[in-house]
Structure formats: structure tokens, C-alpha cells
Amino acid sequence: MSQQPEHHEDELKTFMWVVAHPDDAEFSSAGTIARFAKEGKHVVIVQVTSGNMGTTDRDISSDELAKKREGEETEAAHRLGVNDIEFLRVIDGTVMPDLSLREKITRMIRKYKPDVVVTHDPFRPYAFHPDHRGVGLATHDSVYPTARDHLYFPEHLASGLEPHKTKEIWYFGAEQPDLYVDITATFDDKINALQAHASQVGGRDDLAKMLRERSKEVAKDQPFELAEAYKTVKMRR
Q1: Is residue 2 in some structural domain?
Q2: pLDDT band at 182 (very low <50, low <70, confident <90, very high)
Q3: Considering the chain, what is the average pLDDT of its residues?
Q4: What is the pLDDT of residue 204?
């Protein structure tokens, strides 16, 4: 892992991915997730939508697609060694970075108490998908200050969920990443996980070749062959 010198990886034990659609975690980060799981870190995936609009198949209903994609995500996560998957079931394509979504994400942060939250970079210029921007921004705002300060969502306290101070937030898909994770040893795990998403990548014979080339390009200035990259922000304490 290539990183800033002040970063202490051994202090980071629990990582939470908050993503818009089933397969977003795998396309962006499956090599990292597999590596961390193998290293004994606790990884959680919070799935904001169930991807119930993402198809060209006119013979499947939205409800059927949601069920199918949740099953695919569960299988993909298990292939990566992840057992904690949360489905928030916001309707695909309707994500708004509002207080309602912040409450849902804050609840997950307070439940799992991650050291690092990983999500879409909402600040990347010309990011196309509104759900990606919405999830990234709502997650950013949930980490700080919402999850940290007890007066936000007092009903959480009443249910036993205490405020939590996340140490860092990592953004994938960033224009200027500053952390590169070596996924050379877990690239095959990434492909195996993505192949669980049959509704999205079924029949893609070029998937491994395409992603290997992309991962090699990300790692071009690093001392390893394949990488996934993130922009990291250390949170105010």
C-alpha cells in the first residue's frame, strides 16, 4: 500500500463502504476489500439502493430486479469475505443527499463504528450518475458532523446507538487520489466477486482483461503491478 507517511494502517480496523448500487463496491474496490478481509479487518458494505432500475431487460419488473441484485450483491460480498451487508432500499435513481438519507447512513455509522468510511467521490468534476453524487455527498455529511454529534437524531441514543467519530473518509473514483492499494494478490478475487453480478456483467468475456489493464494503469507509478486508488481525508477530532 502506497500512502501518506503519517497514515497508520494498523490503527484502522473497521472499514465501511457506502455505495449507491450493487456492483459499485466490487467495481471500485473489490481488490481492496478482499485484501482487508484476508488481513482480518472488519469490512461492512452499506448498499443504498438495490439497483432496481439498472437493466435493459423489458421482461423483468423493478421488484424482481431488486431481489435479484440484492442476491448478487450478497454472493459477491461473501466471495470477498464480507458478512455484514446492509440494504437501505432507497429507490434506484431517486437518491437525494437530504436529511432522510443522512439519518439512514448515520445509523449505520453509529451501529458499526468504522475507523474508515469509503464512498463515491461527490466532488469529482463531471461525475455522471446522480445516485453516485448523492450517496457520496450524503455519506460525507453523515461522517462529519452528523454521526459525531449526539444532538443529531436523538432517537438513535434512545435505541442505544452512541455517536461515533470516524477517523478517515476515503473516496473512490477520485480525480487526484493520494492512496494506492496493492491488489496484485487479490485481483482474481475482484473478478470472482464481479462475476456474481450476472445481471450486470453476464457474458462479458473481456471483463478480466479490461479491469487488469485499468488496475495496471492506476498502479503505473507504484512499486506494484495492480492497484485501486482513493482520495483520503482525515477527519477533525
Answers
A1: no
A2: very high
A3: 94
A4: 83
13: Cβ–Cβ under 8 A, 6 or more apart, which residues? 41, 42, 115
Q: What is the total count of domains within the chain?
A: 1
193-213 pLDDT, tens digit each: 999 999 999 878 899 999 999
* Alpha carbon 155 to chain centroid, angstroms: 26
Residue 214's domain is classified under what CATH number?
A: 3.40.50.10320
Let me know if residue 4 belongs to a domain: no
Task: Show the domain range for 229.
Answer: 9-234
Neighbours of 94 (CB within 10 A): 11
Name the strand (E) or helix (H) holding 173: none
The pTM is what? Answer: 0.94
Nearest to 28 by CA among 141, 145, 127: 127
Residue 207: inside a domain: yes
What CA–CA distance (Å, rounded) separates 81 from 76?
9
> From start to end of the chain, where are the E strands?
14-19, 42-49, 84-90, 116-120, 168-172, 179-182, 227-234
